[in-house]
Design a protein that fits this description.
6 strands
Length: 109
């Protein structure tokens, strides 16, 4: 996300328990987004807050356009990006926790 975020640990702690591998996550409906030069920009309709995602965040955002299990999302990111699988999994889960804590994503049934 574009803005500095010192609360990653808090977001992960709050949402970590809710992010079981089988948890379904998806984009919240109160967000308007567009892709600009390979990056995603969002505006929260209710909050008016602006968010900008780099290509990694954009890939996660696109992947949760429809409900997806957290474990499947992590596997998708591991397949898409080069790097250590554990690091990619941790970064994916942390990013999803941040999306959830800001109301940009929600859990689905």
């Amino acid at each position: 996300m574009a803005e500095a975020e010192p609360l990653d640990a808090v977001a992960l702690a709050v949402w970590g328990a809710a992010l079981a591998d089988s948890t379904l996550v998806t984009q919240s409906s109160g967000v308007i987004g567009a892709e600009v030069d390979g990056e995603t920009v969002l505006i929260g309709v209710d909050t008016g807050r602006y968010y900008g995602f780099d290509p990694v965040g954009s890939a996660i955002w696109l992947a949760i356009a429809t409900p997806i299990r957290v474990d499947a999302l992590c596997a998708k990111m591991i397949a898409h990006f080069a790097g250590d699988a554990r690091a990619i999994t941790l970064e994916t889960r942390t990013f999803v926790a941040r999306l959830l804590s800001r109301g940009l994503a929600r859990t689905a049934d």
